[in-house]
Amino acid sequence: LLQTTVVSIIKQQRLLELGHRPLKIAIITALGVLITLGNAAVALVIASSVSGWSRISRLFLLSLTGADAAFGLVVMPLNLCVSLLKDYRDGPDPLCHVVAFVNSTVYATCMYSLAAISAERYVAVFFPLKYASVLTRGRALRVIAFAWLFPPVLLLPISLPRGIIEVHFSTASLVCNPSYASNVAYSLALTAFIFFPCASVMTFANLRLWFAAKRQRVKLQRHAAGGRCRPDAAARVLVPVLTVYYTCWTPCMVTILYNAISGSRVPEWVEFVAVWLPTSNGFLNCIFYFWMNRSFQQKFRLLGQRLCLSLCPEVAQALGCMVPTALHAMAGLWDDNNCLQERSTSVSSTCTLLTRATETHT
Fold first, then answer.
1. How far apart are CA 72 and CA 173, in angstroms?
2. Which of 48, 182, 244, 276 sits most deeply, having the most CB atoms within 10 A of its CB?
3. Which tens digits make up the pLDDT trace of 172-202?
4. Tens of pLDDT along 85-140?
C-alpha cells in the first residue's frame, strides 16, 4: 500500500510538472531569443575594430560571446527538442547523456571565460607597462583554448551512458540533468575545479579594480574644485558584474551540491529557476560588458548606419542617417583610433577604469 501511494504521488507530481511545460518552454524560448540576438550584435561589433579595445581584449571578449551565444544556439534548442521528443521513461538514455555533457561543457566554458576576462583586466590596469609582454597573442590564445578544451575533458564521464554519473531528464527543469548523487565525490570535484576557482579569480580581480578606481576617484575629487559629481563608473560596472555572476551561478551550484549530498530533489520551480538562471548571465553579460561601454555604443550605431545605408539608402536618408561620405570619414577615424589604441592598449585599459572619474571635472 505504501509503495502504491508513493508511485501515485510521483505520477501526480509528474503530471503537474507536465502541465507547466508550455509556460516553461515559452520562458526558455524568450530567453534564448534574447541571448542569441544580444550576442550576435556583440560579435558583429567586436569582430571589427573598437576604439579603446586591444586585439587581446577582443579575443577574450569574443570567447565569452561565443560561450554565451552557445546558450541560445545549442543548449536551449537541444533541451527543448529532448523535452518534446522524449517519452519520459526512466532508465539510461544515451541522448540525454550527450545533451547533459553539452550543457555542462558550455556552462563551464562560460565561467572560465568570465574568469579570463577578469584576469586580463587586472593585468591591464595594475601592470600596464608589462601588459604587452605578459599577455601576448599566443598566451591569450592558450588561455582561451584552455577555457574551451579543459571542460570537455573534465566532464567526459557525463557523456558515457554506463559511466560513473547517471543522467535523467527532469520534467521540472526540462533539462537532461546529471544525477550527481550517484557520485558525490565527482560532483564535489567539479565545483572545486570549476565554480570556486572562477569565482575566486573574478572576486579578487574585480574587487581590486574597484578599490583602485575608488582611490583614484577620491584623489581626483580632492584636487578638483567646483566639479560636478557623477555616479562612480567602476561601481556601475564592476559591482554589477560580480553581483550578477553570484546571483546567476550560486543557486545552480547549491542545487547540485544539495541533490548530491541529500539525494533528494528541490521543489519544481526552484529547480527550474536554479538550472536556467545561469543562461540569463549570457544576456546580462552583453549589458554590463558591452552596452554600458560608450565606444561599443558608438561603434554599434556606426555599423547600424552602414547597414541601413547599404540596404535601404532612400529610407536611411529619409530617417536622417548620415550621408555615405560622412560615414566613410567616420569609419576612417575609427580605424585610426583603433590603430593608436593597439599601440597603447595598456594605457587605455588603465584609463578605462581608473580615470573615467575625470569626466566629472572636465
1. 16
2. 276
3. 888 888 877 777 788 788 888 898 999 999 9
4. 765 555 557 888 899 999 999 999 999 999 999 999 899 888 888 888 888 999 99
3-class SS of residue 170: strand
Q: Where are the domains of the chain?
A: 2-361
Beta bridge partners of 167: 178
Task: Give the SS3 label for residue 167.
Answer: strand
Q: Which amino acid is at 47?
A: A
Chain CA centroid to CA 206, Å: 16
Tell which phi-psi region holds residue 40, choosing left (phi > 0), alpha (psi between -120 and 50) or beta.
Answer: alpha
Phi, psi of 162 (to 5 degrees): -115, 35
Say how far apart CA 85 and CA 79 lie, in whole Å: 10
C-alpha cell at position 238: 564592476
Tell me the C-alpha distance between 329 and 337, whole Å.
12
Q: Note the Cα 297 to chain centre separation in Å.
A: 19
Using CA atoms, how far apart are residues 163 and 160, in angstroms rounded to an integer?
5
Q: Do 279 and 31 meet the contact criterion of CB atoms below 8 Å apart? A: yes
The pLDDT of 201-223, averaged and rounded, is 83
Choose from 101-110, 159-168, 345-354 the range with maximum mean pLDDT: 101-110
Query: Could you tell me the CATH superfamily of domain 2-361?
Result: Rhodopsin 7-helix transmembrane proteins (1.20.1070.10)
Distance from C-alpha of 102 to C-alpha of 96, rounded to nearest angstrom: 10
Per 3-state DSSP, the chain is made up of helix, strand and coil in percentages (nearest 5) of 80, 5, 15
Q: Report the SS3 class of residue 35.
A: helix
> What are the φ/ψ torsions at residue 303 (nearest 5 degrees)?
-65, -40
Q: What's the half-sphere exposure (Cβ side, CA atoms, 13 Å) at 349? A: 28
Name, in order, each residue with C-beta under 8 angstroms of 290's C-beta and a sequence gap of 6 or more: 42, 45, 46, 61, 296
Identity of the residue numbered 349: S
